[in-house]
Design goal:
Blueprint lengths: L3 H14 L9 H29 L2 H11 L18 H5 L5 H15 L15 E2 L2 E2 L3 H11 L13 H13 L14 H11 L14
């Protein structure tokens, strides 16, 4: 299982791969969606692997899962990742990477409406004055670095994405002239709030700051 030290080294290397292409405060905008997709893809592979024991093969399990999407009550997986949007496919991209990544994020969002506005908020193909913000060569390096670690069900703690977000914010927020505290609530404060509120199952929280 990936530990915090390995996670920080991983994220630092990912940030270095796009250094100079955009300001440091925006590194997370490109790194986190890809890590999210990696997590989704690895977890989906794990779920298909488990279901293959029941249905006889991975191919059959995939088809059954795909058919189950027609009825939300019969879904067999947390999130469905089409083969053309899997991490294995992403690693094979060699041309028009930015454009294809945008297509992949939209495809994943289409199959998983809950992810709309989560992984498709940034365009990997965006440009300024006709110049790509992050070119294909840097995106290719970033993809390979993110491919270093598996982050499936047994490979990382459930909050690996939250940990990654905290690290990137804390490490690179200073580059924008702001402190990390202006971007997220430190986990110690979050825990204190949870203890004070003492939430019970079925209760909901209304937060005007959450969009």
């Amino acid at each position: 299982m990936i530990n915090m030290k390995d996670l920080e080294t991983w994220l630092w290397d990912a940030a270095c791969s796009i250094r100079g292409a955009t300001e440091a405060a925006k590194y997370k905008d490109y790194i986190l969606p890809l890590i999210f997709i990696k997590r989704l893809s690895d977890v989906f592979d794990d779920e298909i692997e488990k279901l293959s024991d029941k249905f006889g093969s991975k191919e059959t399990a995939y088809k059954v899962v795909e058919q189950s999407l027609r009825n939300p009550e019969t879904r067999l997986v947390r999130f469905f990742i089409p083969k053309e949007a899997s991490w294995q496919t992403i690693r094979t991209l060699s041309t028009d990477i930015g454009e294809k990544l945008d297509d992949i994020t939209r495809l994943i969002s289409k199959h998983n409406p809950k992810l709309q506005g989560v992984i498709d908020v940034i365009s990997f193909n965006a440009s300024v004055s006709g110049q790509r913000i992050i070119g294909d060569s840097k995106l290719s390096k970033l993809i390979e670095i993110i491919s270093r670690h598996r982050i499936g069900l047994e490979d990382a703690e459930p909050d690996v994405l939250g940990r990654a977000y905290e690290y990137l914010i804390g490490k690179f927020a200073e580059g924008s002239g702001k402190s990390a505290g202006e971007f997220y609530t430190p986990k110690e404060v979050a825990w204190l709030m949870a203890y004070i509120l003492d939430p019970k199952e079925g209760e909901e929280v209304y937060d005007e700051a959450v969009a």
